[in-house]
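README, section 4: Worked example with a bound small molecule

Sections 1 through 3 covered apo chains. Here we extend the same pipeline to holo records, where the ligand is supplied as SMILES alongside the sequence. The molecule in this example is flavin mononucleotide. Nothing else about the input changes; the structure line simply encodes the ligand pose together with the chain.
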Amino acid sequence: MEFSEVILKRRSVRRFTQKKIPKEVLMKAFEEAILAPNSSNTQTWRFYWVNSHEKKENLVAFCLNQSAARTCSDLIVCVASPKSWKISQPELIKYTEEIVAPSAVVNYYKKLVPMMYQWGPLNSWGLLKKILFTCLGIFKPVPRSPGFRSEVQEVAIKSSALACENFVLSLTNQGFASCMMEGFDEARVKKLLKLNCSDRVVMVIAAGEEAQDGTWGPRFRIKLSQVVHEV
Ligand SMILES: Cc1cc2nc3c(=O)[nH]c(=O)nc-3n(C[C@H](O)[C@H](O)[C@H](O)COP(=O)(O)O)c2cc1C
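The generated complex, written as structure tokens:
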């Protein structure tokens, strides 16, 4: 499928057939999802493909019994895991040393990444960063975030959402449909998946084969001129 065709074809589908998505299709979608651009390449996204019947039933309920969740064949939870930079960082350091990257790049992963992505007990380090950069910011442009835990979460959420988009586009390209959902009980989803308290559930993706009348209607968007501003 042409790239533009994939973009046009992807819709939020709320009604699916019973057909299961072949595992290789889902795996390809995951592989393409993790090729998304992401903050400092720390890859702080995690995907939970919920296959257990019992967990899936619970997850449907936690998605407030939405029709997309109820009828889809597969449910995937995308999680932003801000502390997981600790897993990718040693590998990134090894990789940058192997490719003999400039020392600034190696140092970025060794020193700056831990500084940026930690917030300390009770946000203490985050507060220190805030004070420091707010003072420095009086004199020159500075990165004002991430400081606090919520800001590190925000960074991880942005990257994870990009991976979700890759994921659903890949499904479309492979002939399957999806619906991204933010209508869920995050506390219950976190408990179900035994997530860390700093993890954030970015979205639950309902996936499957589109049923007849799977969408609510033709696509609607406000005018391009209302959202694009040349300044
Ligand atoms: C972050 C996000 C959260 C969404 N949450 C829901 C949801 O909980 N339930 C739902 O039916 N659709 C949900 N949607 C789908 C949107 O309603 C849909 O993308 C929008 O209406 C545009 O339609 P389209 O995707 O078919 O172009 C969500 C989409 C995004 C990106």
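What to look for in the output: The chain has ten helices and four strands. Residues 120 and 176 are 43 Å apart (CA to CA).

Section 5 describes how to batch many such records.
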